[in-house]
Specification:
The protein is mainly alpha-helical and 420 residues long. Among the domains are: 6-89 and 377-419; 172-291, no CATH class. The chain has 19 helices and no strands.
């Protein structure tokens, strides 16, 4: 328990003032008792007996309540009377009892559900979120939290996790059948033909621009014993046939080479799905590609690019990310406010989460109270508690004096009446 604060010191001064008041009242009734007894013996009249009886009972009540109040905090008169100094000697037991009381009466499932259901969190939250300034505030807080989280995370750690996750997932799943199905669908729909058109068109343009290079390549591969003019003729012939073939393939959708390519792709798609050797070769190729350093660097750099993009979007108030989040919050708030079913779902979710926490961690929550109380210094705890409630307890002594006096007066009166 923390040290005394200025507020505690002021409370303690108030306790001392009330103690003096209660003690003064006890002294007053004692003086009245002495004077009334003397007056009764001196023959002052019947009234003196009534006053003495009332004062005597008031002293008894005051002393009894003084003993009771004092016994809470210390041994009365320093005497080790059993069942006194309750707070300092029973502090730990009081802490256990307080923890059990809180656990049974505040952390029960029924109490939590009843209190949360009475609050109506879903409707209130929806009404609050439906206000644009509140949605802006939540969006800004989420953006700040997101930036903070991305700043705390080390790029190297995230890159390692992402790279491992992608690699492990790719290794665990065979890709050949999926590729085969996708290729089969593309061939069936004729989607590959545009790619073929692009390739043969570019090939034709390249051959037209690089005729000399093609013929030189053909001549360079001829035997050394053939005449040069023969090599030239062969080179020109090969170039013309190659250009004619590419031109026909470009201009004729029904060209035999196109049909052969369609059949090849269809057969390859079937092999990817059913041929064991083809599937095994694809898997080996996949593993070799994933193991290359360039691929791992590409995977790692993807996180850096994504993080930079997210941070920039979070910092920009007019970014698409923040605008979409704000719009989603406003829409959610409006739905929660207008639709009882949506608000009810939120209420049930909050209730379920709260019940799970209090039922799962009830022991830990109550042990926080028990352990905290056990760690307090007994003397300091006594002074702290007395400073907070001691002033009210002194009224017990005052009330005991007054009530005791009235009770004594009543008993004395009844005794006299019965005796008469």
């Amino acid at each position: 328990m923390t040290a005394f604060t200025p507020a505690d010191e002021e409370r303690q001064r108030g306790v001392r003032r009330m103690k003096l008041t209660a003690a003064g009242l006890l002294l007053f009734v004692a003086v009245v008792y002495v004077l009334a007894t003397w007056a009764d013996h001196a023959g002052a009249g019947a009234w003196a007996g009534y006053v003495a009886a009332a004062a005597e009972a008031g002293m008894v009540g005051a002393l009894a309540d003084w003993f009771a109040v004092t016994a809470l905090f210390r041994h009365p008169l320093g005497l080790p009377i059993p069942h006194t100094a309750i707070i300092p000697t029973k502090k730990d037991q009081l802490g256990v009892s307080l923890g059990e009381f809180v656990g049974e009466n505040f952390l029960s499932e029924d109490v939590v559900r009843q209190r949360l259901r009475a609050v109506g969190i879903g409707g209130r939250l929806g009404h609050w979120l439906a206000e644009p300034e509140h949605a802006d505030r939540v969006t800004a807080e989420l953006a700040t939290a997101l930036r903070g989280a991305l700043t705390v995370l080390r790029d190297s750690d995230v890159q390692a996790v992402v790279g491992e996750a992608i690699t492990r997932r790719a290794d665990a799943r065979e890709i050949a059948p999926g590729m085969g199905k996708m290729l089969e669908r593309i061939v069936a729909d004729g989607g590959h033909r545009r790619f073929v058109d692009l390739v043969v068109g570019r090939a034709h343009d390249w051959l037209v621009l690089h005729d000399g290079q093609v013929m030189d390549a053909v001549q360079g591969g001829a035997p050394g014993w053939t005449p040069r003019f023969v090599d030239k003729k062969v080179g020109e012939r090969v170039y013309k046939e190659l250009l004619r073939f590419v031109t026909e393939m470009r201009d004729m959708p029904s060209h035999p080479a196109r049909g052969a390519l369609d059949r090849f792709l269809a057969d390859f798609a079937a092999d990817l799905q059913s041929d064991t050797d083809t599937r095994a070769r694809v898997e080996r190729l996949k593993s070799e590609v994933l193991a290359r350093g360039e691929v791992q660097d590409l995977i790692a750099s993807a996180w850096t690019a994504v993080r930079s993009m997210i941070v920039s979007a979070a910092e920009d108030e007019r970014s698409e990310l923040r605008l979409r989040v704000r719009a989603s919050l406003l829409s959610l708030g409006a739905r929660m406010e207008a639709d009882p079913k949506v608000a009810g779902k939120v209420d049930r979710w909050v209730e379920g989460a709260a019940v799970y926490v209090v039922t799962t961690y009830r022991k830990e929550i109550t042990s926080l109270i028990t352990d905290t109380v056990a760690g307090w210094d007994a003397e300091h705890t006594t002074r702290k508690i007395e400073a907070h409630i001691g002033r009210d307890l002194q009224f017990i002594r005052i009330n005991g004096t007054v009530v005791g006096s009235l009770a004594g007066l009543l008993i004395f009166t009844l005794s006299r009446a019965v005796g008469a």
